[in-house]
Amino acid sequence: MNLHAIAAIYRFEMARFFRTIWQSMVSPVISTSLYFVVFGAAIGSRIQEVEGISYGAFIVPGLIMLSVLTLSLTNASLGIYFPKFIGTIYELLSAPVSFLEISIGYVGAAATKSLIIGLIILATSFLFVPIQILHPFWMLAFLVLTCLTFSLFGFIVGIWAKSFEQLNLVPMLVITPLVFLGGSFYSITMLPPFWQTVTLFNPVVYLISGFRWSFFGQADVSIWVSLLAITGFFALCLAIVAWIFRTGWRIRS
Amino acid sequence: MTPIVKIDQVTKTYDGGHQALKGVSLDIVQGEILALLGPNGAGKTTLISIICGIVNASGGRITVGGHDTITDYRGARGMIGLVPQETTLEPFERVMNTVRFSRGLFGCPPDAAHLEKVLRQLSLWDKRDSKIMKLSGGMKRRVLIAKALAHEPRVLFLDEPTAGVDVELRKEMWNTVRDLQADGVTIILTTHYIEEAEAMADRIGVIAKGEILLVEDTAALMDRMGKKEMRIELQAPLAAIPEALGEFALERSEDGAALTYTYDTRGERTGITRLLADLQSEGIALRDVQTKQSSLEEIFVDLVREETQ
What we know:
The complex is a heterodimer of chains A (253) and B (309).
Chain A: H1 3-19, H2 21-43, H3 55-58, H4 60-86, H5 89-94, H6 99-128, H7 136-160, H8 164-180, H9 193-199, H10 203-216, H11 223-247
Chain B: E1 3-13, E2 19-29, E3 33-37, H1 44-52, E4 59-64, E5 67-68, H2 73-78, E6 80-83, H3 95-105, H4 112-121, H5 137-149, E7 155-159, H6 167-182, E8 186-191, H7 194-200, E9 203-208, E10 211-217, H8 218-225, E11 227-234, E12 251-252, E13 258-264, H9 272-281, E14 286-293, H10 296-308
């Protein structure tokens, strides 16, 4: 294992993050605050409690997931797409590193960034609504696993993308709808039966449900199903990355 | 002497069907400067990219320092430094950071003293904290070299190091390369300038259309390439070349208004003085005289013709 290489990639990527730390932090904090003002205070005040939890508090796990999913995806995809775009990827390809090491470096850095942002959003939400975290360990476990999985997914998107348009396609067309329809702002039990069934095909439902359980002890689906779903998706992404690296798909001609 | 880089029957056919390399074999000797000379599209960059691991070969085998570039890529790549043709650098990074990154990427522990030495050698030490986007083109090229040297490679590939570079910087680059050779680094550079190959290289490999046409000591090759042509335009056309001029092997143009004399610039006597004197004594009046060095293109054509004979 080329540990120096992993450390070099990780440090290099994190340096980019810390160079623009204020931009990186301010935008998610502001957008989350806006969600709280609109959904929590303005609209939320007219919404009854959801499963015994005030609406403002109910949406916190979903909001964190919304940001963490999107950030993981964009961070990781840009992290590997940018060297491809400006040509510095030659150095990665000519270095004595395995693709596993490259992935650990890039995905690790992207996941770290979104984890930091996720925790900042969590801290921000304490300012707006009273929140309890019943299972802090599971909360953190879900958060870390989500950051890792979606960074890995973003890494694949970054390798796949041939243009900046394609790079934006997945977060815009796939992630945002899945998160909005994944129960960020409602419990899926509030949906008509037909749509409840449809929703079960949305992987994000399991993430948000499990994550919300770690806060309030209530979930739309069983916590074990949630855990299984996210580890399954993680394993799938890992398998795709392994295949990409074996074949050199979109990387080595 | 065992070669430090051994290239054996390497082929490359791109997905589109373009055959970039047609069975290239080449041994590179430790400590030498080898220039790969060839026109655009000859396969120079493809060959280097395959050795360095950027492009997959379609067939053949390469070893660097005895390490197979596929089965033991870590051993092979650890010995190699690559300076690419394009100045591909992250614009917002600082010089020292990007060089430090390169060293780590190649699996070396941090070594501030070595990086300082490299940056000083390339006159970049004062710019170590500058953003790359603020540097001049020549400096950016030197940053690429610094990155390639950060992990103390034994073999350095320079892909067209002086393409689009002004004369002064070119000379500077040549000096840098010689210094590196003095440090024991084996250097392979590609170029399409004959003068550059002549000035730098111990050996020259000529590559065209995906094949190595020949590899020779620079001096020997330059002798073969040193032909020059003199075109003599006449006041009045000649019906035939006078017999007295037979020894010069002149070629008469179709309309008889011009003669072409081919001579060797490296010969002790070029024969020009005598030819002009003889022309005068034959009473042939001249309108104009031009001389022309055989272009690289023509030399390639000659070489291909020789090789196929």
